[in-house]
Amino acid sequence: MTVASILKGKSDRLISVTEADSLADVARVLTKENIGALPVLDAGGDMVGIISERDVVRQIAKSGGEVLSHAVRDVMTRNVVCCGPDDSIESTMAMMTARRFRHLPVRSQGRIVGMISIGDVVKRRVEDAEREAESLREYIVRG
Ligand code: AMP
Fold it and tell me: Which atom of ligand 1 is nearest to the CA of 36?
């Protein structure tokens, strides 16, 4: 199973912010869209960073609520780790676990074509395990 199979079940719409948006904008978009991280895109659609709910919470804990007016560019992570549509689900899970983040942008031919989260990966692994258990059950019952 590959990352492409997870993307197939998700909306095509890539939700993103720009470097000039504020942390309040980020909090609003994350809440409205019910997601945990956003790729940061420049005017040409290239990814220049990633910002997650954890970044926003850390800044508030450090400096208080006034940071909500600060720009995304001051807080985002610039060195973004991506996966590709042909990567295995196991490899993305290992990557997220080793690096301790829960989101991976999916890059194909130099463009960001989607985002996957640890939630998507775990959901798919559980579905695969259930399917495998069901086939084994059928195999045993039928003999
Ligand atoms: P998360 O666990 O995804 O909420 O993110 C934890 C931290 O890792 C935050 O500082 C994010 O900006 C950063 N982060 C999240 N995803 C990635 C990624 N794919 N590449 C690099 N940094 C990331």
Answer: 4
